Amino acid sequence: MDYGHHAATTTTTAATTPRAGTPDSDPIEMAPVRNPFSSPYGSMPASAMGSSSGFQVAPAPRYFHSRRIQKGQQERPWLDRKDPKEKWVTIIPLIGIFIGLALTGFLVYDGLSSVQNHVYCSVLDDNFSQGINSKVWTKEVEVGGYGNGQFEWTTNTDENAFVQDGMLVIKPTLQDQKLMETNNVINLLADGSCSTKNWLDCVAVTNITNGTVVNPVKSARLSTKLGASIRYGRVEVEAQLPAGDWLWPAIWMLPNNDTYGPWPTSGEIDIMESRGNNYTYPQGGDNIVSSTLHWGPDSSNDGWYQNNVKREALHTTFAKGFHTYGLEWSEKYLFTYIDTRLLQVAYVNFNKPFWQKGNFPPSDANGTRLVDPWSQTGEDSTPFDQDFYLILNVAVGGTNGWFEDGVEGKPWVDASPTAKRDFWNARNQWYPTWQKQGAGEMQVKSVKMWQQKGYNGC
C-alpha cells in the first residue's frame, strides 16, 4: 500500500445559478419600492424604523380598485321618467315673484293716484330787480316787540332793508348811542309812521333813573299784507340766513283778518325760523331751521308744540348758502320743505278738527271755560282756511324763551325789567359776531307765491 499519496476525494456541492447582471454574486433581495407622495416614515417597513434586525420584510401588495365605469352602468337622468310634482319647485317661486311685482305696481299706482296735482295761479314773482315794490311790500314800523319782547325797532328806512346786488337785504344795526344813554322818547304816533294804533307798540322811552331804555337795535320787517295773499297754494323764498349771536330770522305767514279771534286763534304759519348763533348753541344755531303752526283758543293754550319740527343742515349751516324755503298748503294738508318738496320739514294732515288735535283743558288758568272757536265752519282745516300774507324779518333777542336763560352766555334774563338795557351793555360781546364777512344780514334772491285754483278768482 502506498502511504505517500492520498486518494482524491470528489465533493459535489449544489451550485446556485447566478442572477442575470450579477455574475458570481449571492442572491440579493430587492428593497420595496416607496411611494414618493407618501410620508417617508409611513412608507418605510416597520423593521427599518425600529428593529435592530438586518432583515427587511416586504409589505403586502396594495389592492387596486378600478373606478372605471362599467359598460351599461352609466346614468342617464334625462331618459328617466320625471316626477310631475317637481315642476312646482320652479312654478311656486315664479308665482311669488309675480305676486310681489303685481303688489308693488299696485302700491305705486295707488300712491301716485292719491297725490293731488293742484293747478295754481301766480300771485307774486319778485326777484327785486326793480327794488322793493311798495305796492307789494310794506315795511312795518313798531317798537313794541311784537308780542315776544323782541329788542328791535323795526324801521322803514334803507338802513335796515334795501336792495343790493339784485337781492333784498334785511340788516339789523345798533341803536343810536345817545338814545340809549340819555333820557329820550321814541314816539312813532307823533310822526305817523307806526304801523298800528297801539300806544305800547309805538312809543319807547329811555329813563336813566329806572333803567328802562328804548330798543337797543334796529331792524326790518316786510310783509305782503297789502299786496299779495293766498288761501291755499304755495310759497317759495330763496334766501341765505344771517349769522350772528341772538339774531332771529323768520319767513312766516299771518291771516289777513282775525276771523276766529286774536292770536293764535286765527292761526300762524311759520315756514322757517332759525337762530343766528353758532352751530354749537344747544337749542340749535344757524345749522337748524324749524317749522311750526300756531293755533289755540288763547295765547296760554297754543298748540304749536304738537307740530314743531326741526331740520339740520348737512355738514354746513343755513348761513353759508342760499336755500329755498317752501310751503304747500291745501284743504287736506299743509307741509313745509327745503329746496325740494321731497325734503319736507313739517307735515300737518287736516284729518280732524284742530280742537280735537289740541286736547285743550276745559278751562284756562282763571277758571274761564274754553270753547271751540272753529266749530262753526265744519272744516278740518280751520283756522287755516282763510287768506294769509307773507312776512320776512330778522328779529333780535326777545323775552319769550326763544333764547333760553343761562345758556351760552345769554346776557339778559327774560323776566328782568332791564332785559333790553342788559343786552345793550353786552354789545361788545355779540355785535362783533354780526360784523363778520357775509354775516349779520338775511339776503333774499326771490319770493314766489301761487294761489290754488278754485279760490280768490284763480
UniProtKB/TrEMBL annotation:
InterPro entries xref list: Beta-glucanase-like, ConA-like_dom_sf, Glycosyl_Hydrlase_16
Composition bias type Low complexity, residue spans: 7-17
GO MF terms held by the record: hydrolase activity, hydrolyzing O-glycosyl compounds
All residue ranges annotated as the GH16 domain in the record: 107-433
Gene3D superfamilies: 2.60.120.200
Pfam families listed in its UniProt record: Glyco_hydro_16
Protein name, as recorded: GH16 domain-containing protein
Record organism: Recurvomyces mirabilis
